[in-house]
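Q: Sequence in, structure out?
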Amino acid sequence: MKGGYDLGHTPTILTKLEDYLGENNLTLAQFAEHSGVHQRTLNNWIAKHRPVAIHQLDRITWAMGLPEGFFYELYIDNYIIERSPDWRRIEPLLFRCAELDKLDAIQLVVGHIMDNLLYSPKLFDAAEKLFAQGQHNAALLLYEGIAEGEKYQHSERLAICQYRLFTIQVGNNQIRNLKAATRFEPFVERLNEIDQLDALKDLANVYRSLREWDKLDTTARKMRAKAEIQYSLKHQQKKREWEESEKRLSRPMFVYITYADLLCASVCEAQGDYQQALQFTNAYADLDWVIETDQKTQHWVNLFKHWAEGNTYVNKLLSGDTNVLPHYVEYIASTSITSENEKLSKLLNVMIAANRYAIDINDVLSRFEVEINSFALLSQSTDMYTQQVMPDYFAWFGYELAYYYLRRGMFNDGFKHLIYALVKAHILNNETYFINCTGLFAHFQAHALPETREEYFKLLEKVWLDNVEKNDSAGHRS
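A: Exactly. Output:
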């Protein structure tokens, strides 16, 4: 007996509170004043086993001098798993666990409550809030729990969960990205017709970064067909009804049609069909059919016309018309300073043409030296194109630049960019780039300085050790 209460059979958290009061010679009233939790609340907790709210537990934890979230796992065991789940306690706990990055605790809660699918809508709403707040690691666990619980359903909620999982899981590793895209693709058709457009756009950008040209072509054409239907419906429905739907899109409606043409042009370009690529390019250059005239629409119309101008040069250049190179270089120079990502992709086209047709572009490289050196420092973005396509371009550009310099006997610059490309290829887990880079080094290794060789082989050893660790075969190392 301490302070008039029999705590002999109380839950573990209360036992720890009892020990704390005894060790510090405190009454419950004194502790209540110190913690800021009402004495009546503590009485009800101890005598009637009515659990405290999570914010009150935080105050109690602080008053006991313990780290934030110290009791969360016990709280889950005592008041969620051992009792009927109460969403009024669960939701605040999930958000606090997310704030403190206590992902194991979130996993415990989700695994328990998803035995009852009645909690699925509430858990989904919580996941959406966490996702909107940027708490992606926590949201991921909730979406995974819902997706597992509803895997035999055909609900739109399941499709949205799979879309969010795809968005969160796509990262630097291109092998994992392909798996994420493959898992998500079957769920696109289950999304709302409007949400399908952004889903297809994001899926297309991942396929573009992976150079999965057949999948990209199929996805882009599907996006175009769906966008054309929705654009037609938009101008048949009442304005108010459509405005509510369009708020869900990340772009004006017409953009999904024109971007599909741009993607199809990139497929044709990759396959060497430059005439067909030009036809698609002409399609998104001619936007007289766009009905809207607002400022946002005009911004996108101008972008597509700008891209069409550049890509017209590109298709002519890559098909062997080197006379357009000076015009294309001036076009690159005119690119806005806010579009450095775009400038990289344009210079990559110059590098490809230079290596393909043995063009001397030393003057071009000198002109854009500052931009080339700054590409690796470009800011991060949540946009799927910038997040996925641009890192691929970094590695590709580094390889093409190394190839150009090495073939011309400029070995210091060549090996510098080759090492850079190797690092990027390893980060992306892109085997094709990595093999190309190692083959290029092997071809020119006689011209490498001793310190360059040492750097190269240290990098190869690091890649080897990373792969050994990843594949759980550490015992194979000497």
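The CA atoms of residues 54 and 93 lie 6 Å apart.
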